């Protein structure tokens, strides 16, 4: 594992100053506006390169009980839990050609889950499936998603290769009409929106981005026709090619090694380095798998969340839950060790300092690992992340750092400023032009932009009010699931609900709750459900009033999508998850309490 940093090996005051300096140099006045929306001349970046056979069908003008918008992991959970509840008249609408969501789009070489598959993959016990490795790669995950859809008959009546364009509520019929790019006019008693937070790719708004004459694509639309090979590498089409990758986040960490081993020359353009930790991947222990008792996956998911949030009970009880040998939980182990060393009675005033010191130690371990692997000390220093754990998504990878020891790979560090410009022939940084034949954007997805922009469609609710208009000053909802004036519409996996590092855990909780509600409504002939203004105002106030204990995305963090690129936005307080990453247990408990007694507090039903 990592080289362990003792508390004598780092200077907390010096690290605080370095963290602040690194954050300040990356702050920009344009925040999220620095990104180029993929429309107009850039709309081709959204083309689906994975379509094997276009679906040809006539427009639909029919009605179903439930429309689920989104066929990713959240949509799979929603459909599965509704099928288990006995709800049959379901239609999934998905713009891709298949189920899978982020695992449909992200097929770049090296793509894999970064939370262990036993915890991350949906519905393992329900499908009697055990992942072959601790971390599954994208092809294996996509196949599992398809098997989930088959198991729960979600392909039946589904509309794939179909984009929603608008939703309109009809008060007279108490129905939603869903308009699509295929001229569909589908009516639904209930709509469940599971668009996912990582579904709309983004481009950096770099000067001259439209001038480049070479080949270019986004990692979420990987062009294997150009690169050759497949998701497991062997990119023979890059032989003799000069390639540039813009971005050094989680995607680039996974794909860079495969490009570096195939291209003649690779330039990696870095604004902010990722924290890259040990992956520790290995085949699944079959003896261990055979020993598991029914209910093992849900228990494992809850244990993982408890350890990540420190909410598993007393210190010793949390230690007993820890069955995860990976970098995600190392921070918690360091913190608990330091708390034990501090003694039984630790004043509350000192807990924050112990947490900070634990965080310094954790990140020193990550930085020490760079020195252990990267031979050139200047390159190693540029690759070190100077920010707190969870300011950016941690990366687990054993191939990325060694790539910078290759003679044909050059790290172009922009000292936090980003690329200056793009020309017809290449990329300019600090006055130097790097000529490339191919430019790959590993620039991620829109997260902090408005919900309707990320969804790609708007909702027109009661009295013609749009969701875009209602949420223009920030999200307002009840449990993150309902919003007043938009009856019979439920949202899963968005702000004001729960967030966990293992996101499928939160998606499943939302799906189970939604299935419970819709089953109750259908069985009791309830045709209109809305939350009250009082209930959503109270919930939004509770969300705004809760403060995350973790540092994730805080104002002291380096700019990134966790904190709206470091810019103060009053809407961010409304759009945050309940209690930050620490509040998921309380949120799940609130949903469970709501379901007791069928009293439907905060909802008006008729």
Overview of the structural elements:
The strands form six sheets. Strands 2, 3, 4, 5, 6, 18 and 19 form a seven-stranded mixed beta sheet that branches. The chain folds into two domains: 7-36 and 203-279 and 358-441, FAD/NAD(P)-binding domain (3-Layer(bba) Sandwich); 63-200 and 447-605, 3-Layer(bba) Sandwich (FAD/NAD(P)-binding domain). Mean pLDDT is 90; it is low at 1-7. It is of the alpha/beta class and 606 residues long. A hairpin with a 3-residue loop joins strand 14 and strand 15.
End-to-end Cα distance: 59 Å
Uncertain residue ranges: 1-7
The number of strands is 21
Helix content: 25-40%
Strand content range: 5-15%
The structural class is: alpha/beta
CATH topology of the largest domain: FAD/NAD(P)-binding domain
Number of helices: 21
CATH architecture of the largest domain: 3-Layer(bba) Sandwich
Shape from CA axes?
A: globular
Q: State the CATH class of the largest domain.
A: Alpha Beta
Counting copies of identical and different chains, the oligomeric state is single chain
Radius of gyration: 24 Å
**CATH homology group of the largest domain:** FAD/NAD(P)-binding domain
Mean pLDDT: 90
């Amino acid at each position: 594992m990592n080289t362990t940093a003792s508390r004598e090996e780092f200077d907390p005051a010096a690290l605080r100053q370095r963290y602040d300096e690194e954050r300040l140099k990356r702050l920009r006045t344009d925040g999220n506006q620095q990104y180029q929306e993929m429309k107009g001349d850039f709309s081709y970046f959204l083309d689906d390169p994975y379509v094997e056979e276009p679906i040809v069908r006539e427009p639909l003008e029919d009605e179903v009980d439930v429309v689920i918008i989104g066929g990713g992991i959240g949509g799979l959970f929603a459909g599965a839990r509704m099928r288990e509840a006995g709800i049959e008249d379901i239609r999934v609408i998905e713009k891709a050609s298949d189920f899978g969501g982020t695992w449909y789009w992200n097929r770049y070489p090296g793509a894999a889950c970064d939370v262990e598959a036993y915890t991350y993959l949906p519905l393992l016990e329900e499908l009697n499936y055990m992942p072959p490795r601790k971390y599954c790669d994208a092809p294996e995950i996509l196949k599992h998603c398809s098997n989930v859809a088959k198991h729960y008959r979600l392909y039946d009546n589904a509309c794939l290769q179909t984009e929603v364009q608008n939703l309109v509520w009809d008060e007279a019929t108490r129905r939603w009409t869903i308009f699509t790019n295929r001229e569909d006019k589908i009516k639904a008693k209930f709509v469940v929106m599971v668009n996912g937070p990582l579904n709309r790719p983004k481009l950096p708004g770099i000067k001259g981005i439209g001038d480049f004459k070479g080949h270019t694509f986004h990692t979420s639309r990987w062009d294997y026709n150009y690169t050759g090979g497949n998701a497991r590498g062997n990119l023979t089409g890059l032989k003799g090619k000069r390639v540039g990758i813009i971005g050094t986040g989680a995607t680039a960490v996974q794909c860079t090694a495969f490009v570096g081993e195939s291209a003649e020359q690779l330039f990696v353009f870095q604004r902010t380095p990722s924290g890259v930790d040990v992956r520790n991947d290995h085949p699944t222990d079959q003896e261990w798998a055979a020993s598991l008792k029914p209910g093992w996956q849900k228990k494992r998911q809850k244990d993982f969340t408890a350890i990540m949030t420190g909410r598993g009970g007393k210190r010793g009880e949390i230690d007993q839950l820890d069955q995860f040998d990976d970098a995600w939980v190392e921070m918690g182990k360091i913190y608990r060790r330091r708390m034990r060393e501090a003694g039984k009675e630790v004043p509350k005033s000192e807990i924050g300092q112990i947490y900070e010191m634990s965080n310094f130690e954790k990140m020193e371990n990550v930085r020490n690992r760079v020195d252990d692997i990267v031979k050139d000390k200047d390159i190693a220093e540029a690759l070190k992340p100077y920010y707190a754990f969870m300011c950016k998504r941690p990366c687990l990878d054993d191939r990325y750092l060694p790539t910078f020891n290759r003679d044909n790979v050059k790290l172009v560090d922009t000292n936090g400023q980003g690329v200056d410009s793009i020309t017809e022939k290449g990329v300019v940084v600090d006055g130097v032009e790097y000529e490339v034949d191919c430019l790959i954007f590993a620039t991620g997805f829109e997260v902090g932009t408005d919900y309707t922009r990320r969804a790609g469609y708007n909702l027109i609710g009661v009295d013609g009010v749009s969701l875009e208009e209602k949420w223009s000053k920030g999200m307002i909802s009840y449990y993150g699931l309902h919003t007043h004036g938009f009856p019979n519409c439920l949202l899963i996996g968005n702000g004001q609900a729960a967030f966990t590092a293992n996101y499928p855990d939160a998606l499943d909780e939302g799906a189970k709750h939604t299935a419970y509600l819709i089953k109750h409504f259908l069985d009791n002939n309830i045709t209109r459900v809305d939350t009250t203004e009082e209930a959503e105002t109270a919930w939004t106030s509770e969300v705004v009033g809760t403060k995350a204990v973790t540092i994730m995305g805080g104002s002291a963090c380096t700019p990134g999508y966790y904190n709206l690129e470091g810019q103060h936005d009053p809407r961010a307080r409304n759009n945050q998850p309940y209690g930050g990453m620490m509040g998921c247990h309380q949120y799940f408990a609130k949903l469970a309490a709501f379901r007791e007694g069928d009293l439907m507090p905060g909802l008006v039903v008729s």
